[in-house]
């Protein structure tokens, strides 16, 4: 764990920021699988930053279920722009607002409630989205796809994975979902592999949601339909449907600063 902490913080410190907010994920899709490990990693990183004169805080966020609905390159960009336009999924929007308000607080922009209001306001008035478009444009990006996600290139093929029975999704392994997206071409298995920017997954049902037998749980996208079988096997291997609605974990577990750990 000290090697992970030092590797991450060396890059943060080298960037020259005087305030650093860390998003330390915890769960099946993260390096840290439980809260104690995540808190310990956060404490190490906060202590390194503090020792070098930086203001540092870390939020422990959940990764036992994916944030939002979209997995894949252009799919995630489209969903991120929806958040900035006030149209994004509630869970992804909430984590973004928590991160933004905590960063504003570290920057000395006011008390936490005021910082939260500032973050909400720039989404409501559209200025957050416009600044993002300007940042893309300054780097030579095509901002037309940010304003209209339908302009993104679409994958040639789509394939639904359907619920095998009535019930609730009680397990949806995030690591297996991520691996399924890689098998579709959204990520690399080997460094030489090319990435299909249109490939990925849109989740229609997530942890805790009720499902009916035959109802689509998610849709897979790829330019090669022979990839669907392996991706579906990977996805379904981490999926469990049960009779009882499970308890859905919180989005934010804790906030770690040099003053201690605040658990939510």
From TrEMBL:
Segments forming domain Pyrimidine nucleoside phosphorylase C-terminal: 168-242
A Pfam family reported for this protein in Swiss-Prot or TrEMBL: PYNP_C
Annotated EC: 2.4.2.-
GO biological process: one example: pyrimidine nucleoside metabolic process
Any Gene Ontology CC annotation: cytosol
One Gene Ontology molecular-function label: thymidine phosphorylase activity
InterPro entries the UniProt entry points to: Glycosyl_Trfase_fam3, Nuc_phospho_transferase, PYNP-like_C_sf, PYNP_C, Thymidine/pyrmidine_PPase
Keyword annotations: Glycosyltransferase, Transferase
Descriptive protein name: Pyrimidine-nucleoside phosphorylase
Organism: human gut metagenome
């Amino acid at each position: 764990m000290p090697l992970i902490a030092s590797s991450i913080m060396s890059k943060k410190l080298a960037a020259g920021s005087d305030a650093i907010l860390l998003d330390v994920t915890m769960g099946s899709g993260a390096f840290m699988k439980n809260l104690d490990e995540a808190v310990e990693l956060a404490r190490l990183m906060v202590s390194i930053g503090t020792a070098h004169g930086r203001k540092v805080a870390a939020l422990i966020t959940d990764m036992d279920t994916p944030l939002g609905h979209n997995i894949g390159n252009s799919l995630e960009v489209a969903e991120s722009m929806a958040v900035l336009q006030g149209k994004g999924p509630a869970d992804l929007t909430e984590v973004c607002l928590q991160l933004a308000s905590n960063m504003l607080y570290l920057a000395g922009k006011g008390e936490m409630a005021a910082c939260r209001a500032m973050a909400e306001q720039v989404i409501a008035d559209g200025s957050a989205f416009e600044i993002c478009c300007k940042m893309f444009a300054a780097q030579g990006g095509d901002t037309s796809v940010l304003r209209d996600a339908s302009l993104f290139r679409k994958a040639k093929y789509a394939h639904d994975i359907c619920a095998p029975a009535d019930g609730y999704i009680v397990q949806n392994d995030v690591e297996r979902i991520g691996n399924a997206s890689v098998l579709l071409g959204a990520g690399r298995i080997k460094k030489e592999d090319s990435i299909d920017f249109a490939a990925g997954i849109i989740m229609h049902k997530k942890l805790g949601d009720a499902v009916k037998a035959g109802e689509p749980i998610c849709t897979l996208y790829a330019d090669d339909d022979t990839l669907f079988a392996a991706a579906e096997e990977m996805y379904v291997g981490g999926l469990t449907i049960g009779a009882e609605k499970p308890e859905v974990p919180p989005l934010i577990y804790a906030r770690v600063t040099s003053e201690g750990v605040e658990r939510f």
